[in-house]
Amino acid sequence: MRKFFQKSDGAILILAILGVVVFLLVYPRIFPESAIRPIADKDAIAASGTAFVTSLGYDLSDRRLDMQLVHDADKLRYAYRTSHGGTKIIPRMDSVAVYAWSLRWVSQRSQTDRSEGESGVTVTTDRHDAESILGDFHLKLDLSGNPLLFETKQPEDAVVPFERQRTNPDTTRRVAETLVSRLPHPAGQWIFVSAQRQPAQGGSMHVFVWKLSRPVLGGQVHLKVEVVGHQVRSFRQDFVLPETFVADKPKDEIVGITITILFLFLFILVVVYFIQRLKADLVDLKGGLIPGIVVILGWAIYFWAQVLTDAAEPHWALLLGFVLTAPFIGGGIWAIFAVGESLTREIWSEKLVVMDALRRRFFFPAMGTALLRGLGLAGIILGSISVIHFTGVMLFRGYYHLGDNALYLWSFSWPSLFAFGQSLLTCSYIAITFFLFIIPLIRRRFKNSIWMILILIMLWAFVGLPIPKLMPLPLRISFNILIGLLLTFFYFRYEFVTTFVGVLTLPLLYFGVVMCSGGQSFLTMHGVILLGSLGVVFLLALLALRGNEPSEAVLAYVPDYLQRIYEKERIQKELEIARNVQITFLPRTTPKIHGMDIACLCVPAREVGGDYYDFIEMGPRKLGVVIGDVSGKGISAAFYMTLTKGLLKSQARMATSPRNVLVAMNDLFYDNAERGIFISMIYGIFDLDARTLTFARAGHNPMIVRRSGRGDAEELSPPGMALGLERGDLFERTIEERTVGIEKGDVFLFYTDGLNEAENLHHEQFGEDRLIDLVKLYSDRSAESLVTKIRGVIERFTAQAQQHDDMTAVVVKMI
Asked: In this structure, are strands 596-603 and 807-814 parallel, antiparallel, or unpaired?
C-alpha cells in the first residue's frame, strides 16, 4: 500500500479532515441553511396547514397538496447586511421568517359542473360553495407552523350573487379580528391601522390592515386581511424593509445571459469538433456510453425523487418529461465525453491512465489512490468554501443567493435521492466538460500558460458547483474562480478520475454534513445515507490499495479509433515505402539524343500504383522507350514494378526485337509472379538512322501518333495481351510487332490509363478522345510544353476530385 500511497496523499487526507472540521465550525455562523431548524416535521406542518385552511371554512377534499420549503431573498439579504460582522445572522433570519413552508392545494376536478343541454348549449350549474367560488389555495407557514400568508385563486367564470356578499362591515371586521387573534407574533401586538371597501366580482371586498406595535430589526411588519362575505379571502404578513436599506439584488439577468451565451458557444464548439473528429475517425463512440448512462441515471433519480414528493403534478406528466429530455441529457454528455476523450488522449494521454485501467479492472492500487485523492479533494474544497464564504460575509458584506431550487432538498420526501441525482447530473457535466474537453482544447490551442490561465478564469467565473452562492456578483465570481482554479490544479497535478471523484462527491459531502447538522431526525437519516455512501467509496479505495498490481499492468484498453489510426499509419508507411521504390526505379533524367525531344509526366496518386516507364539507350542514334502498368497497389505493385524493370533490362540486352523481349519477359514473369498479377506494357525502339519506330504492345493503352503535315492524330494498337496472364503459347501467338516510319515533326504519346480514366466529381472520365485532341492541337509545341498542357487540362477537368491512379506519360517528338 505504501508503494502507491505517497506522503503527499497523506497530506491531502489531513487537509481534507481539517476542511470538514473548519466547515463544521463555520457552518452554524454564516451558512443560510443552518437556520432551517424546524420545530415540527414536514407531516406535522402539512397537518397544521390543512387544519388552518379548513377552519376558515374551505373544503380541501379531493385536492392534492404540493409542499415545498421556500425563502424570501430580500429578507435573507437584509439579515446578512445588518448582521454586524456575522454574529447575529441566524437569530435575525429566524426573527424575520426568512424560510417558510409553501403549501398549495390543487383541485383535481372542475370547479363548476359543465354539461351540454339538449340544444348543445353549455350549461353551468352554480354550486354556491366556497370551493367553487375561490378555487385553489396557497398557504405559507413559518418553520414553527404559524401562518404567514393565505390566498385563493378566483376562477374567472365563478360569479357570486351580489346579495350573498352584502354583509355588514362590522361583521366582516369581526371575521378579520378573529383571524388576527389566531396570528400571534413574538415581536409584539397587532395594532389596527385601517379598513377599506373595494369593488369585487359580483359585490365588494373589505380590506383590513394591522401593524406590529414595535419594529422588527428596524423594519415594520404589516398584516393585510381581505374578507368577502363571511369568509377570509386572503391575508399576508409583509416585512417592510427600512427606507435606509438598499439591497443590491442579484444580477440574475446578466449571469443568465452570460451563461446562455457560454452554453450556446460550448454547444456549437462540441458539435463542430464532434463532426470534424468523427469524419477523421478520431472518436471512440463507445467511450461515452457509460458517462451517458450515469447522467441519465442521475436524471432518473432526480425525477423519481420528484415523483415521490410532488403530489400536485400528475405522475404521467413527470414520466413524459423524463422520457422526452433523457435522450438529450445523455446524448449531450456522450458527445462531450467522446470528443473530450479524443482530445485528451491526443495531447495528454497520461490523464486517462486510471480511467483506461478501469475499463478492464476495478480493484487495483492506482484506482484506490485516485478514490482517496478525490475524497480528499472534496474535503479540501469544502474547507476552502468555508474560509472563502466566511471572509466574504465578515469582511466584504457578502450574503447568499439560494436561487429558486436551492431548498428542494428540504422539500423532497427522499432528499438523499435528490442529492444523488443532482450530483450525478450537474457534477458529471461540469467535470467532463471542463477537464476532458475545455482544458485539453485550451492547452492544444494556446501553448502559453498565461493565456490558458486567463481563459480558464473567464470560464470558471460563471460556472458554480451546486451549493449556495455567495453574493454580490463580484464575490460570487471570485469564489467560482478560486474553486475552479483549485480543481484545475488538482487535475494538472493528478489525473481525470481523481478530479471527477472530487467534483462528484463534494455536494454529497456538503449536503450530508448539512442534513446531519439540521437537528431533525428525518434529515439526519438522509444525511447519514449520503455520508455513508462516501464511506463506501473510502472502503473501496482501501480494498483497491491492498493489491500490488500497478495500473500499467491492467491497462489493456485501446479505443477502436486508435487501432484504426495505427492501421492507417501502417498502411501509410507501406505506401510511402512503395512510393519511394517507385520513384527510385524511374528515370531521374530524360535521354539527350540529337533529333529527339523527350518529356515525361509522372503524377503519383495517394495510393501507390505500379506505373513504370524507362529508357534503354542502345547507341547514340537508337533509343528504347517502355511504359507499363502493374496491376494492384502498394508494396505488391512496387515489388512487381521492380521485378519488371530487372526483366526488361536483362532481356533488352539480349534481343533487339520488342516482340521477342516481351515474349521472354512474359515467360519469366509468369514463372515468378502470383496468379492474378499482370502487367500491361508497350515497348518501342526508335532508330534515327533507319528513320523507323518498331514496337509491340502487351495489352497496354494504344500509342497516340500525330504525323507531321497531317491534321489528325491516330492511335496505334497492334494486338497483344498483358504479361503474366498466360504461360507462353497464346501470348506468343497473340502479340504482334509493328514498324512505322518517323519524320521530323512527328509526335508520339505513350501513356497509362491514369490519364484517360481520370474522373471528375460527376464520375465522368477524361477519355482517349480528349487526349487525341490535345496531341492534335498542341503537337507544334515542344514535348515539355505538350506534357504540361496535358497535365493542366486534366487537372482542370478533375477539379477537386481525388486522384485514384498514377498518371504517367512519355512524349517523344522528332526534331
From this structure: antiparallel
- Of the candidates 223, 221, 220, the one whose C-alpha atom is nearest the C-alpha of residue 244 is 220
- Of 220, 240, 260, the residue at which a domain comes to its end is 240
Contact 247, 81 (CB under 8 A): yes
Containing 345, the helix (H) or strand (E) segment is helix 315-347
Integer Cα distance of 809 and 751 in angstroms: 4
Q: Are 9 and 372 in contact (CB under 8 A)?
A: yes
Dump pLDDT digits (tens) for 19-57: 999 999 988 888 887 777 665 677 888 899 999 999 988
**Buried-exposed string 115-132: b where 16+ CB fall within 10 A, e elsewhere:** eeeeeeeeeeeeeeebbb
Domains identified in the chain, total number: 3
Distance of alpha carbon 352 from alpha carbon 367, whole angstroms: 12
The cell for 339 is 470528443
Range of the domain at 769: 583-814
Q: Alpha-carbon dihedral of residues 668, 673, 676, 680, nearest 10 degrees?
A: -50
My answer on whether 486 and 619 are in the same domain is no
pLDDT in tens, 450-503: 888 889 898 898 888 888 888 888 888 999 999 999 999 999 999 999 999 999
Which of 285, 376, 389 is closest to 334 using CA atoms?
285
DSSP labels, 420-467 = HHHIIIIIHHHHIIIIIIIHHHHHHH---HHHHHHHHHHHHTT---SS
Strand ranges of the sheet holding 190-200, from the earlier edge strand across to the other edge: 63-71, 99-107, 137-141, 147-152, 231-240, 220-228, 203-212, 190-200
